[in-house]
Amino acid sequence: MTHTVQPIFILPEGAQRTVGRDAQRTNIMAAKLVAETVRTTLGPKGMDKMIVDSLGDVTVTNDGVTILEEMNIEHPAAKMIVEVAKTQEDEIGDGTTTAVVIAGELLKNAESLLDQEVHPAVIARGYRLAESKAQELLNEMAEKITGNDTDILRKIAQTAMTGKGAEYSKEKLSELAVTAVKSIVEEDGNIDKENIKIEKRVGDSVDNSELIKGIVIDKERLSQNMPRVVKNAKIALVDREIEIKKTEIDANIEITSPDQLQAFLDQEEKMLKDMVDKVVRAGANVLICQKGIDDMAIHFLAKAGIYAVRRTSESDMKKIAKATGGKIATNLKELSKDDLGFAGTVEEKKVGDEEFTYIVECKNPKAVTFLVRGGTEHVTNEIERAVTDAVGDVTAALRDGKVVAGAGAPEVELALGLRKYADSLSGREQLAVNAFADAMEVIPRTLVENAGLDPIDTLTDLKAAHAKKQKWAGIDVFSGKVMDAWKRGVIEPLKIKTQAVSSASEVAVMILRIDDVIAASGSKEKMPQMPPGGMPGMGGMDY
Fold first, then answer.
1. Averaged pLDDT, 9-33
2. What is the DSSP letter of 46?
C-alpha cells in the first residue's frame, strides 16, 4: 500500500519565491534598468525626462533623484537603488545620477563574475577593498580651496548647472549661488544650507532672479491701514496668539443687564489693547506672529502704525530671527527692546500676482533668500532644482575645502589607481577590484555616449592622457577631444565623488548578497493572474 506524501506548505498561498542565481539575476536586472533610466540625463549633453503622474501633473527634469522619486518605483531591488540617489541628495544635493549609474555598473560587472562562478561573498569583499582604496585615491588627487577662491566656487556652481534648464543664465545664477553661500558662513566656519531660502516665482525671465540679503515670506500685511513700508524696522517676533484665550474649563458667564454685557465687551477690548500696548512699549514697529491675531488687535496695531503679519511658519520665524538678530518671544509680558530684531526696511511688495513681505537690509544676514524667476511653472521648478544643486555643491566644497575637476577625469584617474592596486592583491578579490575599476569608467563613457560621440576612441585617448600623468584630463563633449578639465573650469566638490562611490558600492554589495527573494501574496509584485471565471480560493496557481 503506497502512501501519498502530503506536501508541506511553509509560505502562505500565493507567495512567490525566487532562489539562488535567478534571484540575483532579477535583482541585478532591476537595478540596471533604474540606472539605464537616468543614464541619458548625465552631462552637459544629457537629455531631460518628462514624467506624468496619475493626476496628470507633469514634471520635466534632468535631476536624477527627482526622476526616480516621481517614477514611483515598486520593485524592491530597484527601490534600494533609489535610496542611493536620496542619500546623495540629502548629503550634497547633486551627483544623484552619477551615484545611481555607478551602482548599476558595479552590479553589471559583478554579473559577469558570477557567470564565471566567482562566489558573491568574494565579489563583495573585493568591492569593499576597492571602495576604501578609492576613497584614499580620491582624497589624494583632490585640490584644496578656501572661501577666498571665489572664481573656483563660481565654476563649481556653473558645473552643477550645466546640462540643466538653468544653463542659459548660469553666469548670473552661479554668481548669486556663491554670494548666498558665502553670506551664511558663520564665524566658526559652520555652513547650514537651510539658511538659504529658495523661493520661486513664475512670470519673469530667469535673468531677473535675485538674492535678497534678508528674508522674503509669502505673507501680506494684515490691514490696509498699516504702513506699506517701514524703515529702520524694529521687529517683534512673537510665538503666541494675540487673541483672548478661551478658558480651559467650561465657564458660564451670566449677564443680567445690557450694561454688564457692554462692560464685558469693553474688558475684552481692553485686554487686546493691553497686548498691543506691550508690543508698542517694547519699541517695535513690525510684528511677526507665529499664531493668530484677533481682528480687534489688528485694528489697534494699525492705529499704532505697526506692520503686522500672522501665522508665519516656524522655519521662517527661525530664519527671520537669524537674519535680524531678534529673539522669538513666547510671553508678551517679558517682551523688551533687547528681544527685537533689526532690519533696514520691511515692506510689502507684489511679485507676480501675490503679495510678499520683504525683510531686507538686516544688520548681519546669516539667512538669505534666493528668489528664482522663470517664464512658466515647469521652467521655474527646473531652475529651482538646478539652483539647489549649485548651492549644495558650493556648500560641500567650502565645508571640506577639497575639490576635483569633472568631465570624467577623476573617474579615469581612479580606475588607473585601482588597477595598480588590484595587481598587489592575490586571490579572486583581484577580479572584483578590477571589475570595480572598470565600473568607474562608466561615467566618462556615458558623457561621451550622451554627446553622440564614439566612446571607444575617446576613452582610449583619455586613458592614454592619464597614463602620461595628466590627472585632470577629461572629455570635451562638444568636440570629442581630450581637454584639461581644471583649466576649462569644470570643477566639482570632492564630496560628490566620495559619497557617490561609497553609497553605490554599499548598495551593490547588499544586492549581491541576496540569494532568496520571498514575496508575500499581499505584496504588489506581479502574481500569476487567475484566468477569467477561475475558481475562488485558487489564487497564485499557474494555468
1. 79
2. P
Q: How far apart are CA 44 and CA 58, in angstroms?
A: 23
Q: Determine the 3-state secondary structure of 308 from DSSP.
A: strand
Query: Of the residues 59, 63, 87, 98, which is catalytic?
Result: 63
Q: Which three cell numbers stand for residue 445?
A: 563613457
What is the structure's pLDDT at 48?
A: 82
Q: Are 164 and 47 in contact (CB under 8 A)?
A: no
Looking at 41, 59, 87, 97, which residue is catalytic? Answer: 97
What is the rounded average pLDDT of the residues 486-491?
Answer: 83
- CB neighbours of residue 277 within 10 Å: 14
97 as an active site residue: the answer is: yes
Which CATH topology does 16-144+404-519 take?
A: GROEL; domain 1 (1.10.560)
Residue showing cell 510665538: 239
What residue spans of 282-325 are helical by DSSP H?
A: 295-303, 314-324
pLDDT in tens, 290-306: 888 888 888 888 888 88
- Name the amino acid, one letter, at 88: Q
CA atoms within 13 A on the CB side of 456: 0
Catalytic residue (one of 94, 389, 393, 476): 389
Q: What is the pTM of this model?
A: 0.74
Running DSSP on this structure, what letter comes out for residue 234? Answer: E
Q: Of the residues 96, 388, 446, 498, which is catalytic?
A: 96
**Overall fold of domain 217-247+256-360:** GroEL (3.50.7)
* Alpha-carbon separation of residue 522 from 468, 472, 518, 525, 526 (angstroms): 58, 52, 12, 8, 10
User: What is the domain partition of the chain in residue ranges?
Assistant: 16-144+404-519, 217-247+256-360
Would you call 96 a catalytic residue per the annotation? yes
Averaged pLDDT score across all residues of the chain: 80
Tell the residue number behind the cell numbers 564565471, with chain if given. Answer: 116
Judge contact between 312 and 288, C-beta under 8 A.
Answer: yes
Which of the two residues, 251 and 122, has the higher pLDDT score?
A: 122
